[in-house]
Design a protein that fits this description.
The protein has 7 helices and 12 strands. With about 250 residues, it is α+β, with helices and mostly antiparallel strands. It holds the Pfam family Alph_Pro_TM.
Length: about 250
């Protein structure tokens, strides 16, 4: 018996008891620990689609997976070259922007749902709710939103893959999402949406914790709990290292 057939057999009681399709998602890792040698990670988001009575419809539904990192305020600065020197010319504040956002789908989002539905569920980079700080002209806000999306896309923090979800036998699905080394720490949500005929007919959510371990965790906790001491060490340590290096060069020269 194949593993797919075994999975369907184990889920048979749930299939018989439900009135609509359900998603049973899972993740290859519930937590990611960042150490000094961390170069990134690959997450596998997978699961099963449970249909009432175990009857798989002839028309295969589509799946969209969204992995979103901690939301935080951010100030985006625009640089201009003035008199040969690059300087901050303008800025715009966003009250909430995800530190990481990745969306993978079985088809392009535009082919699955209309613009309103995509905006409601924040499906796709252009539908992120970035919550501008207010007070700026709409044209300026759009310019800075575009700049923020482009910057984080180039950093590998915002990802969109229109062919990133594989569906097997209309029941099992999986998606791989790359986590870059500079990913922020915090609680991440992995949302899975089942879409049929332009409507979201089922959804499920899982959480992932991204944290620091070892020396990196000690440094991060010290910076929060002992701000003054951490600041003094951050200033004094480079001075001591510079003085030591200068003394070593003087001795060699002598």
């Amino acid at each position: 018996m194949s593993w797919r057939a075994l999975l369907v057999l184990l889920l048979a009681p749930l299939l018989m008891a439900q009135s609509g399709p359900r998603l049973v998602p899972d993740i290859s890792a519930r937590s990611i620990q960042i150490q000094y040698s961390f170069t990134g990670a690959q997450l596998l988001l997978f699961g099963a689609i449970l249909y009432p009575g175990g009857r798989v419809p002839r028309r295969e539904a589509d799946v969209v997976v969204v992995l979103k990192g901690p939301v935080q305020p951010i100030v985006v600065r625009e640089k201009q070259k003035i008199a040969g020197v690059w300087t901050n010319a303008d800025s715009n504040r966003f009250r909430s922007a995800p530190g990481f956002y990745a969306v993978a789908s079985s088809k392009p989002i535009s082919e699955l749902v209309d613009e309103r539905t995509a905006a409601i569920y924040e499906l796709g980079l252009q539908n992120l709710q970035l919550s501008p700080g207010g007070g700026a002209q709409p044209e300026k806000e759009r310019r800075f939103e575009s700049g923020l999306l482009d910057l984080r896309r180039r950093q590998g923090l915002y990802i969109e893959n229109s062919k990133g979800v594989e569906i097997s036998e209309a029941v099992l699905y999986r998606a791989r999402i790359s986590i870059p080394s500079q990913v922020p720490v915090g609680t991440y949500t992995a949302e899975t949406f089942l879409i049929d005929r332009g409507k979201v007919i089922a959804a499920a959510t899982k959480e992932i914790e991204v944290g620091k371990s070892g020396f990196e965790r000690f440094v991060a906790e010290t910076a929060v709990r002992q701000e003054l001491g951490y600041g003094l060490v951050a200033v004094i340590l480079p001075l001591l290292l510079g003085w030591t290096a200068a003394a070593a060069f003087r001795r060699r020269g002598a």
